[in-house]
Amino acid sequence: MLSPEAGWAEAAGALGAVVRAAVDAGVRYEVATAERLLFEKDDTCTGVLTTDGRTFEAQHVLLCSGAHTPWLLAESAPEKPSLHAGDRMTAAAVLMCLFKVPPGENGLDKFEGAPIMVHPFGGFPAECIPPGETSTRGLAKCTHKFPYTRKTYHEPSRQEISVPLLSRPERMTWTMDLPDALTANSASVRDMFFGDSVKGMVPEAYRLCWDSSTPDEDWIISPHPASKNLYIAAGGSFHAFKFLPIIGKYVVQMLDGKLSEELARKWAWDRDTTPIVTPYTPRGDLKDIPGYLD
Length: 294
Ligand SMILES: Cc1cc2nc3c(=O)[nH]c(=O)nc-3n(C[C@H](O)[C@H](O)[C@H](O)COP(=O)(O)OP(=O)(O)OC[C@H]3O[C@@H](n4cnc5c(N)ncnc54)[C@H](O)[C@@H]3O)c2cc1C
Known about the structure:
globular, binds flavin-adenine dinucleotide, FAD/NAD(P)-binding domain, alpha+beta, six-stranded mixed sheet, FAD dependent oxidoreductase, 294 residues
């Protein structure tokens, strides 16, 4: 089925524009890694401590840390299960591959006016975004919709938490350093979509793309009930980017206590959840893939 109204936008450019607009509006933009949240004795959140030793204090601490959120909460208060994410969200990664498409009538010409291709269900869910005009010039981006967790024992809080590999940040970007048993899936995505019709598509780079998944695939946009001044905006479930133009409005409404009752209930930290199963439901663990090494 072709949806002529569907489209796509490059995430990096969109995010850069939002950051520039925020800075132009007076936001102080600092780059640092949050080591842990800071709390007073009564669990009021007062700010963050960064890995370079700086402290940022705030009256509202809004955690938008995506896949890292469960680990960061556990690191911040290992002895306080009421602050932990538990089953509310799970970090998971899907494999993407950038395929270099050669020029010519059997290569790039075939993508002239090509739509996004989505094969959402069945045994091999996948999607492909055709070569773009700017940063993805000549590159087709293929995703295997099979999210893997990376479950790790968090000693201080004595629980298993899925978390991206923090010690090797290069693994968070484009790489060729992934096992064959994993990258073979990208070749299968390419072959499923293009067969012999496009020739010579070779992998340029792979990426494990992380997100935090919630059981009902709705966001968590909520005050944290166990800590005053702490707010959460996470739970993208692999489909939150498209809301970039509007999601801020709802996060601000949440901070101001002005979310409608219906949305506040839907996106609450604690809610009655009906789990759903979709292609973006985490269903494997990276450590079970032959050849996968941290
Ligand atoms: C392969 C792939 C394809 C996707 N395709 C689509 C799509 O087509 N359409 C769509 O709508 N969505 C898509 N998504 C989903 C979308 O990208 C996510 O849902 C969305 O980005 C989640 O937003 P977030 O703010 O919760 O987390 P993120 O965007 O992951 O942002 C979290 C940020 O917090 C930072 N961070 C984490 N921990 C710390 C720390 N301790 N200190 C400082 N910073 C920290 C991270 O570096 C990151 O920048 C896709 C996701 C993937 C992985």
